[in-house]
Amino acid sequence: MDKLSKIKILNAQLLAEMPTLEIGTIPDDLISQRKLLRALMNVRPPMPLDENFLKLQDEILTAEKLKRGIVTLADIPNAEKNIKLWQGDITRLEVDAIVNAANSALLGCFVPLHNCIDNAIHSAAGLQLRDACNKISSGNEPTGAAKITPAFNLPCKFVIHTVGPIIYGEKPTAAEENLLASCYESCLKLSAKNNLKSIAFCCISTGEFHFPNKRAAEIAVETVKKFLAQNNLCVVFNVFKDIDAEIYRKILC
Asked: Is 78 in a helix, a strand, or coil?
């Protein structure tokens, strides 16, 4: 069975599960059908997962993972001892855990095809990730805390979900800076608790949550270095935007 045929089967099942959705006419080509699949996965609420669906889904996501290319720790040079800086797609990293900048519901982004990291991670991991998050979510996770799940179809082993502070003013308050530091501390402590050897951080709170990039990076590096002074762990600062890459290079080098 080719990829398009698999995707059409998955789309049909998702639409059957959500009969009130109105999607209009979707072109029959592979790209359009694949976008529809991601969009439907994004909006599907936690429900029981069908084994046949998951088999086809996992085949598609695994093939796409290999096509994107897997990046190992050996592929990334050290910026400092036990600290690495890498610019690119966090869903490609083969580390023990990647950090997801989650919302307080902890269920992933429900906006179809949204470009946030929460959406990207859930879309690449598969529907199992939302199901796993639903089992551990309180429904309103506190800012600065962290929880861990398996990573399913991602190359990493685990995903650590943390809710960063949302900045509404011109600059973060001292309390908001402390909450961001708590995000990093919680993820690091959770890594140690689970005997993880490596973790990749995204730029928590800097995107949709409007934390200033430079100050966020300073807090991230300061918090990580304090932890590494007493713990053995490889930390990857994963950035996507050029502005963040430049900020971290200046801080670390």
From this structure: strand
